């Protein structure tokens, strides 16, 4: 019995010595001792995969280096204005269609009052709004001079005609008191149109019909500016 107790005591002492050795780092490591190494290895792996630590890749074409980092770069917003669409009529910023012989019908009507006057009517027969700048450029037969406009009839804005609308101009043919000179009778009238600048070409002209007996005019011949409202020149 005593011999059995001695062996048991000896086994207990050996076990205590084994535990003491483990606590001093000289014995066999348990599972807990391996955890710090695994943590360090994981940290090293994360550092090697970090975008900031990636080495620049060689630019084989230029011999230099190219930043291979996948980190998105933030660029300052561009202050350059977007290209604008092409436009006609740059001064107004919109497309301008001129009224002329291709998109209007023009009539010439002799008036009984005021005496020696004629009325020109231009109707927009096109599908777009058109504009009538300034005044008509008249030519009777083969006359070599251009009748002037009465500046007092200039409207506040360029006359604009929607499809189907009409514009007007008055024509003083001759002086009522006979003070004009070089009077003659014409059988053909050509109405010219101006562009957006004075005396520029506004496109094809029109040739409204005149009375069969013709129209008498003299050196006092003049015209009004184009009008949107016929009442603006009714007493001219």
Automatic annotation (TrEMBL):
Species of the source: Streptomyces achromogenes
Protein name as catalogued: DUF4232 domain-containing protein
Keyword Membrane included in the entry's annotation: no
Domain DUF4232: 99-227
UniProt xrefs under InterPro entries: DUF4232
Keywords, comma-separated and alphabetical: Signal
Signal peptide: 1-21
Region (Disordered): 27-94
């Amino acid at each position: 019995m005593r011999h059995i107790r001695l062996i048991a005591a000896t086994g207990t002492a050996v076990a205590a010595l084994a535990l003491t050795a483990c606590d001093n780092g000289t014995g066999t490591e348990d599972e807990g001792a391996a955890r710090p190494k695994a943590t360090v290895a994981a940290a090293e792996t994360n550092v090697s995969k970090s975008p900031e630590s990636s080495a620049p890749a060689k630019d084989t074409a230029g011999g230099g280096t190219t930043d291979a980092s996948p980190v998105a770069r933030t660029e300052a917003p561009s202050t350059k204005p977007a290209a604008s669409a092409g436009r006609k009529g740059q001064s107004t910023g919109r497309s301008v269609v001129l009224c002329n012989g291709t998109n209007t019908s023009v009539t010439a009507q002799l008036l009984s009052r005021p005496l020696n006057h004629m009325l020109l009517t231009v109707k927009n027969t096109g599908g777009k709004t058109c504009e009538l700048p300034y005044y008509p450029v008249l030519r009777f037969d083969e006359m070599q001079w251009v009748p002037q406009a009465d500046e007092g009839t200039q409207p506040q804005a360029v006359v604009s005609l929607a499809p189907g609308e009409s514009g007007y101009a008055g024509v003083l043919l001759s002086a009522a008191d006979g003070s004009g000179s070089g009077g003659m009778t014409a059988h053909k009238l050509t109405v010219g149109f101006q562009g957006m600048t004075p005396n520029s070409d506004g496109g094809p002209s029109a040739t409204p019909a005149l009375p069969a007996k013709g129209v008498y005019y003299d050196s006092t011949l003049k015209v009004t500016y184009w009008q949107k409202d016929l009442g603006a020149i009714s007493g001219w």
